[in-house]
Write a structure and sequence with these properties.
Maltoporin, Chain A; 20-stranded antiparallel β-sheet
Length: about 500
Amino acid sequence: RWNADSESVIGDASLAFDVGQTGELVLQFTDITQNLGGNRLRGVPVNDAGSFLTDRRWNHNEASDFLDMRARVALAQYRFAPRDNLDVDIAARWFSNNEHQMYHEPMGLIDRDRDGVAEWMTRQLRNQIRDNTAFTASGNAVWRINTGRIEHKVLFGADVYQLDADFTAQTANSADLARGAGPVRGIDLFNPVYGASTWHDYNLAALPWRSTATRSKRYGGYLQDELALGTRWHVLAGLRWDGFKDEDRMGGSSVDGNDLSWRLGSTFTVRDGLNLYANIASGFVPQSAANQNPAAGGPFDAERSRQWEVGLKSLLADRVTLNMAAYRIDRSKIVQTTGEVRDGVNQLAALGLVRSTGMELDLLADVTEHWVVNLTYAYNDARVKDAGPNGITNASGDRFANAPRNKLGLWTRYDLPSINSAIGFGADHVGERVSLDGQAVKAYTVFDMSWKTTWKQWQFQANVKNLFDKVYAASGFIERNGHFPGEPRRVYVQAAYNF
């Protein structure tokens, strides 16, 4: 994308200690600095048929816009086996990240020169600072026991998580508004002139700040038993209890809740190389703290789900692996953006019920001693069955956004042992989708290639992604933000030395 660049520096250090006869203690610290110029990126405008209206490299941001982030992560993990049939894993993790975003938000096209073609993208300037600090701790154990002829593998544990999130922001309005106009110039869609208006020109010191401060707590415990009822039949049953509390530390309000979810599954070995399985499960996932912000339309109830799945896994002639599955997933209270903006805050709403019904196929075959082929196919019919109290639906029927009905993947590798090399070729096809505003997101197929060579202690590898430089949309957002373009052709070269 024009004006966009990326620079990342990652430092990582870890120590591992043997403790006693069976224990291992791992200490790790990671420091991450990321500077993204010409960001925060949105999409490129499209028409209702899903065709980009301009160059896929078009950027609504100025070169002076940025997204800078600094993060620090500390981890301590202790694993040990107090008995031959008992394994214990205890971990604690702390992280802190600070992020500053200064970017131009696209607010929609207008026909400024009145020639019948909307060519001018109106923009807001958003200055946002996020400070997050979190701590999580977890412990689990696996206990293997027998009750008569039944073998049990019992998993039990608990986890707790707390996140403090502070958000501070300013918004400068578009100069193209009929009411409440601000200093922010738009940008031409076809002939953008960058640098004519940057954040330095908007007198940010005179703009008011708005702030939020939230604390999110998550806690839960679980128990699962995997039973071997003979050599062919295995049954799995599990329970998990989850609770949450989200606090508005500035407003003094809070939202809390809890629920029990469960899973039940079974696997049956018909014969060597052929297994059948089935499972059913429920889910309970609290919304993120950012989604609970009243300024964005929150708070929202936790997301709930129910899943059914049946399938088979097979090994044919010791050369072909074939896996097949069919499923149905019901999810409720899925929070999505509405496209509306109030006081510089993107508004959210929850869908009542989304149902996904589909099947998956995975075929892996050793065609010859040196030739491997992997073929995958997925069919997924995802539909909005209940739009919720706000009536949020895609404009194109009831299809769920960014969920393709058909996906096909192919990867093949051929070894060339005479020159210690291998060549690979792949293809990925994604079917048509709809965006959050019901615009078409076109189907696409991209191809990849790779080459790997070993020479003495050296290994060289080259990968070409999007071999034919296909122009396509990876996903669709709301109309004013456009579709996110897929990455253009990329070439990666690697060299590794084995000591």
